[in-house]
Backbone:
């Protein structure tokens, strides 16, 4: 009986030890993700006087809408990333400016330097810089980030820097011409290699348009739209602006974006939505 009892004890002890090692191994495999901090900064305001340009037809003829303009700072233990660059700083003026076509009335309230100071950073504190796309309301202070590495889709880079583009659209080229430290990417790109900050390739608005996924320690991850959508109704109706590079690609990107947002249970932030600008500010205060 004693032998049987001792044998049972040894068996139990061995089984417990194996289970403990198994649990320990499982715990060891769990990698804690780094702390990431997100800031949303004011890139200006855009009053769209001719909202019809944001449709393929006459849906919005005679309508206007107020847009916000924002840019974002993502602080990661491996470095800082700036996403987008607001309106040009030449629009830091007393009264809003209506451009010649009459489509947009524009104004920017504050400089990059001042806004970075408010969060304890300087222009030289950035390892990376990325644009959702190179339209004027996203490239405002881009050249100031010349010491950072510009993460850009290879097709986008080629499209705006070829000799023909420099002649046909000098304003776009001039807005990024100081960015000499270039890392060309193709498709989705995990910025820091740990899944916390991921550039998502969403072409259509421009040839190399991008969105941005961020895990910033909030209840939900954040998914910035770039200009895949411009306002809430755009997202509901899958509306495509008249000036998009490719309508079919845009619609495909919208499907891809929504599937990814659902998979990650992400909080979608429409970058030109004043409502979403305030919503993100409130989320970051918690």
Residues:
């Amino acid at each position: 009986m004693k032998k049987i009892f001792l044998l049972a004890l040894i068996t139990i002890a061995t089984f417990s030890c194996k289970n403990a090692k198994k649990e320990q191994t499982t715990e060891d495999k769990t990698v804690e993700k780094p702390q990431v901090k997100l800031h949303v900064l004011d890139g200006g305001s855009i009053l769209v006087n001719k909202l019809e340009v944001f449709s393929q037809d006459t849906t919005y003829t005679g309508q206007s809408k107020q847009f916000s303009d924002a840019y974002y700072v993502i602080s990661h233990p491996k470095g800082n990333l700036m996403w987008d660059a607001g309106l040009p700083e030449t629009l830091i003026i007393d009264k809003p400016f209506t451009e010649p076509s009459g489509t947009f009335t524009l104004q920017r309230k504050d400089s990059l330097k001042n806004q970075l100071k408010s969060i304890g950073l300087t222009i030289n504190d950035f390892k990376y810089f990325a644009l959702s796309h190179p339209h004027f309301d996203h490239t405002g202070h881009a050249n100031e980030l010349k010491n950072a590495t510009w993460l850009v889709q290879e097709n986008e880079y080629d499209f705006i820097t070829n000799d023909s583009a420099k002649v046909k659209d000098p304003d776009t080229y001039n807005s990024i011409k100081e960015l000499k430290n270039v890392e060309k990417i193709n498709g989705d790109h995990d910025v820091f290699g740990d899944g916390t900050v991921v550039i998502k390739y969403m072409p259509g608005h421009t040839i190399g348009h991008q969105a941005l996924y961020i895990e910033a320690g909030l209840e939900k991850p954040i998914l910035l739209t770039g200009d895949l959508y411009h306002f809430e109704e755009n997202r509901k109706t899958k509306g495509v602006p008249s000036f998009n590079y490719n309508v079919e690609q845009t619609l495909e990107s919208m499907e891809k974006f929504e599937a990814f947002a659902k998979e990650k249970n992400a909080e979608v932030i429409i970058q030109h939505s004043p409502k979403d600008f305030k919503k993100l500010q409130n989320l970051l205060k918690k």
Remarks:
- The two ends are 64 Å apart (CA to CA).
- Confidence is low (pLDDT under 50) at residues 1-28.
- Helices lie at 2-29, 112-117, 154-161, 163-168, 170-176, 232-237, 247-264, 274-285.
- The chain is about 30% helix and 25% strand.
